[in-house]
Amino acid sequence: MAMKSDASREPFHLSMLFNDTRYRARTIQVLAFIMLVLAAAWLVDNTVRNLAALGKDFSFGFLWATAGYDISPHAIDYSSTSTHARAALVGLLNTVIVAALACVTATILGVLAGVLRLSDNWIVARLMTAYVESFRNVPALLWIIVAAAVMSEAMPAPNAFRGENPTTSMILWDSIAITNRGIYLPVPEFSLSLGQINIGLSVLDLNSVAIFGVLAFSLLVRRGLVKHAQRLQSATGRRPATWWKSLLVCTVPMIALFYTLGFHFDYPALKGLNFSGGLQLRNSFIALWIGLSVYTGAFIAEIVRSGILAISRGQTEAAHALGLSSGRTMRLVILPQALRVIVPPLISQYLNITKNTSLGLAVGYMDLRSTLGGITINQTGRELEGMLLMMLIYVGISLIISGVMNIYNDRVRLKER
Amino acid sequence: MKMMIALAAIAAATLTTGVASAGTMADVQARGKLNCGVTGGQAGFSAPDASGVWQGMDVAYCRAIAAAVLKDPKAVNFVPTTGQTRFTALASGEIDILSRTTTWTFSRDVDLKFTFAGINFYDGQGFMVPKTLGAKSAKDLNGATICIQTGTTTELNLAEYFRKNGMTYEPVPVENNADIAQKYLAGACDVYTSDGSDLASTRSSFKNPQDHIILPDVISKEPLAPLVRQGDDQWADVARWTLNALIEAEELGVTAENVEKLSTGTDNPEINRLLGKEGDLGQQLGLDAAWAKRAIAAEGNYGEIFAKNIGEKTPIGLARGQNALWNQGGLMYPLPFR
């Protein structure tokens, strides 16, 4: 003991920074940090000097210049006379739209495949194994290109719908046209529209506001109904049937609203060279959506399977002992517990989907990578600024997704008190 | 401790390596190869043939420069680029010269900091449609679905043309030529728009070229020119005057066949200056006297290159038109060698 306290009182030498275990760890950290800073400084300095040698400056002014190119689809008002910033925003929205849809479908597909892969039915389980293994082990880009090729090579051109004896026709009572340029769907329209109001970047459609309002009201009433039923059940032991009340509450106000707004469908129709009217889901969009969904769905299936396998077999047996059917056991006992294993890796899959939307470039989907990171950079020559901005945006989206999912994870996590 | 020193040494070494290079010509000569950016495959302009050798107008120009600078027309690395990657490839030094049906525009010259070597093909944007579409002019294309190469002037011209004429269209952006041909043939777009030369080249690669027509409307000027990075005047001069030499050779009747004989001296002082018999033009460029002779011997003069790759006797079948010499009603006007 005495020896040790003597050692600590020993006067400090510079060599102790390396020889004394008490200081060495810190010294190494400080040196590593200095080297990291030097490397970063060198990178920045090198970039600045190279830009200067090329005679270029560093500025984001190009964002306010006229873009000059067309983008379709565009979720907000856009024309070729808009600015590059707006083009980037249109691209960003396209990225978000396809990412959100692909997240939803991949999750549905993944949960189904994951659960079915554990099925007792040999054929179903093997089919799901085949799906998971084949889709997981082929690059996402190939699935996207395959989907695009099938759409553009195997489907009929709009011309085939024309004439006295068309070689093909629209399906579902002439309402949906599947062509090699995309799928044309009927789109709901209102003859007594409430109109739109302009709010800064975009226009707000009052019809959708009304629909959302009514929907929120219906859901609120339904929640009250369920709560009431629960109270009654705990008080008397008898639960009143709520399903028909719920159905009524959810449908009647909506139908009434649709009727007053003059709801009807706008059907796609051949006009000029193409179908017009209705909603066009472009090939590039469908290919990207399907490709990303089936690819990521296979990964999610594995995550779901591992989550289910993580729950002890005793839980299933206990549930069965209580008389719960297999389906209810899965829905009420296993999956809720599995979620705490499933959610963290699921977050990464959602991030992957979002980042992989940039593969849309291969099929001509105009996402952020194609607008800001492609045409804008090419027309303005601002590679560095464009790439930095794009990286910043992707980081932003990813952080938002992981933030939201982490909040959800906190809620489904096993509560330990 | 030792590892520390090694790391520090590596860091120091990296810090000293950002030294600026000498001129591009010195780099090329030291390397012994010319890095030439071309299209990924556009018949007649630059595409590998059946045996994998690059052929075409743009390719021939790079071979001429390699012959002038490196004395070997085969000393070229051809780097395929797309409409979107070409400028980055040039600016970053991945290629020494871009010879790729690129339109000479103000912003590329001034804002993107490039130097164009002179126009090697006068072109204009047009439209190709299947005969079955029944369109007779670009004005019939309202509402059409149009395939375009992204990152090109084509994209901007198209948007402008349709806006000016109050028409709408549905753009299908595609990254490279081969994809466009496949999409267009599958009917995923009604129309393919590009430079007239590209349309002719793409059509020549179809199985049934006669089923497709190129509409008469030309909606833009597209002066195609090879380009180099701005700020290296010597290299830009080499690029500019090699192109000039090829056109001048056609005007003077110097061909790949007779260049050897004419270089021993003629009674035409212009030919003598061009081929290095008189004066010291080669030396002024930083090359030897026979630079132009080698450049012309590589693939022939401008007229020969044109006829061999895209002329009327080839599947692409382009007439000389605007690209004839100035004294034959065209726009090709070589600058004087003196």
Structural write-up:
The longest helix of chain A is centred in the first third of the chain and has 34 residues, at 21-54. In chain A, the strands form four sheets. Chain A has a three-stranded antiparallel sheet with strand order 1-2-9. A two-stranded antiparallel sheet of chain A has the order 3-6. Chain A is globular and about 85 Å long. Chain A is mostly helical. Helices cover 66% and strands 8% of the residues of chain A. The model of chain A has no long low-confidence stretch (mean pLDDT 85). Chain A starts with a helix and ends in a 5-residue tail after the last helix. In chain B, helix 3 (57-70) crosses helix 9 and helix 3 (57-70) runs antiparallel to helix 13. Chain B is globular, with a radius of gyration of 22 Å. Chain B is of the alpha/beta class and 338 residues long. Chain B has 14 helices and 14 strands. In chain B, strands 10-9-11-8-12 form a five-stranded mixed sheet. In chain B, strands 4-1-5 form a three-stranded parallel sheet. Chain B has a two-stranded antiparallel sheet with strand order 2-3.
In terms of topology, how is this protein built?
The complex is a heterodimer of chains A (417) and B (338).
Chain A: H1 2-9, H2 16-19, H3 21-54, H4 84-117, H5 122-136, H6 140-154, H7 171-174, E1 177-179, E2 182-185, E3 187-190, E4 196-199, E5 202-205, H8 206-236, H9 243-261, E6 263-266, E7 269-271, E8 274-276, E9 279-282, H10 283-309, H11 313-321, H12 326-356, H13 368-380, H14 383-412
Helix pairs in contact in A: 4-5, 4-10, 4-12, 4-13, 5-10, 6-10, 8-9, 10-12, 11-12, 12-14, 13-14
Chain B: H1 2-16, H2 24-31, E1 34-39, E2 47-48, E3 54-55, H3 57-70, E4 76-81, H4 86-91, E5 97-98, H5 106-110, E6 114-116, E7 121-123, E8 125-130, E9 144-149, H6 153-164, E10 169-174, H7 177-185, E11 191-195, H8 196-204, E12 212-214, E13 222-224, E14 227-229, H9 233-252, H10 259-262, H11 269-274, H12 281-285, H13 291-299, H14 302-309
Parallel strand pairs in B: 1-4, 1-5, 9-10, 9-11
Antiparallel strand pairs in B: 2-3, 6-14, 7-13, 8-11, 8-12
Helix pairs in contact in B: 3-9, 3-13
